[in-house]
Amino acid sequence: MPAPSKVKALQIPGVKPPTTTCDDPNCPWHGSLRVRGVLLEGVVEKLKANKTAVVRHDYLHYDSKYKRYEWRRTRKHVHVPPCIGVKVGDKVIIGETRPLSKTVKFVLLGKVEV
Lowest-pLDDT range, 12-16, 54-58, 100-104? Predict the structure, then answer.
């Protein structure tokens, strides 16, 4: 009988645990990385770096001078665990964590089911 895989229950609505396992210490599901702070939704733009992606997050900003809203966007560098398979154009949920490198301070938690 194979050993049961240890998957943490992150208690995040809309995010299911991955079906595959990994041995990455910076995985929020199978490693020891803790998720704290904000949770954001975004779209994967680039997957060129190793275990890293660029995620675009669009949000509304209120302009008090003109009393209107405008769309703004920001790009976040995100750590991608090997157990989560994503491609460019996927809608994902990312969570804030401790700094993993100079620019990476978020980790990918899962895909959003459309």
Answer: 12-16
- pLDDT at 35 > cutoff 60: yes
Which residue ranges make up each domain of the chain?
A: 42-111
Q: Measure the CA–CA gap between 8 and 73, rounded to whole angstroms.
A: 31
**Torsion sign over Cα 25, 27, 29, 34:** positive
Please state whether 16 falls in left (phi above 0), alpha (psi between -120 and 50) or beta.
beta
b/e code 16-55 from CB counts within 10 Å (16+ = b): ebbeeebebebbbbbbebebeeeebebbbeeeeeebbbbb
**CA angle, 108 as apex, 20 and 114 as ends, to 5°?**
80
- Max intra-chain CA distance, the chain: 66
Residue 14 has pLDDT above 60, yes or no: yes
> Measured between alpha carbons, how far is 14 from 31 in angstroms, rounded to an integer?
21
Fold for the domain defined by 42-111: OB fold (Dihydrolipoamide Acetyltransferase, E2P) (2.40.50)
